[in-house]
Specification:
It comes from Agaribacillus aureus. This protein is an alpha/beta fold. 34% of the residues lie in helices and 32% in strands.
């Protein structure tokens, strides 16, 4: 774990560093900072640490001024000889508040708390990423409005075999072979469809993975057999063949 110490007393820095090494040799004190100004400058230029030990009273101001100037995204353990700042400290990512002189058993408990919360935050971060991906999938089109004669009908994504363009007119072909005109370009459709399910085979075809019966290599190109049969040669170019193979493998 990479930590920083923000403290203006050299003896306090040395003592805390030694105690951390005794408790957990994997903890690395990567930097010690003595003032609000120095801390703001360092935090603005360097990657965030995993944890900071911060004295409340620094030479040029209280350390709370650091948090007003820098967006802190890492946990903080405050260290001070004064207990009147406890409530205020919890406004600034505070995990714990250690009164000086710091006792090693109290420091151990604070570090244990950090590790427990780290596990919690990692799970929370995973949940956020997972939720984001789910929401992204939910953002893809579920159905399309297409022309049927002079009327419009709705076609679900699950019913679509592929899209093709002929003379700048785009058609939706469903799994039964029915053809509908759709007022979108293939480029527009690519953005609205889940790329896990649909692949742009070439300039004319955007195909659903479920519509591909089989395929074969043909001098570097890939020839697709689609269902329903478009009565047309559908090939993926040599340049696009590696992308197709990666896509079809999932």
């Amino acid at each position: 774990m990479d930590v920083i110490i923000i403290e203006d007393e050299a003896t306090a820095i040395e003592k805390l560093t030694m105690m951390l090494a005794n408790i957990d040799p994997t903890i690395q004190v990567i930097c010690s900072l003595e003032s609000v100004k120095e801390s703001v400058e360092w935090l603005g230029k360097n990657p965030a640490p995993e944890l900071a030990f911060v004295d409340v009273q620094l030479a040029d101001d209280t350390s709370f001024e650091i948090f007003k100037q820098v967006n802190i995204q890492f946990p903080v353990i405050f260290t001070t000889a004064y207990d009147q700042y406890i409530m205020e400290s919890f406004e600034y990512n505070s995990i714990d508040y250690l009164l000086k002189p710091i006792q090693e058993d109290r420091l151990k408990k604070a570090l244990t708390k950090v590790k427990k919360l780290e596990t919690h935050f990692l799970q929370h971060k995973f949940n956020q990423i997972f939720e984001k991906e789910i929401n992204k999938k939910d953002a893809y089109k579920k159905r399309f409005l297409v022309k049927k004669g002079i009327d419009y009908v709705s076609v679900n994504i699950s019913e679509i075999a592929y899209f093709l363009t002929v003379h700048k007119i785009v058609f939706l072909i469903d799994k039964e072979g029915k053809k509908y005109i759709i007022d979108k370009t293939l480029t527009d459709l690519e953005k609205e469809l889940n790329p896990a399910n649909f692949f742009r085979a070439n300039r004319k075809y955007l195909v659903n993975i479920e519509a591909i019966d089989k395929f074969k290599s043909d001098n570097g190109k890939i020839a697709l057999s689609l269902n329903p049969d478009p009565k047309d040669e559908v090939t993926v170019s040599k340049e696009n063949a590696p992308n197709f193979k990666s896509w079809i493998e999932g």
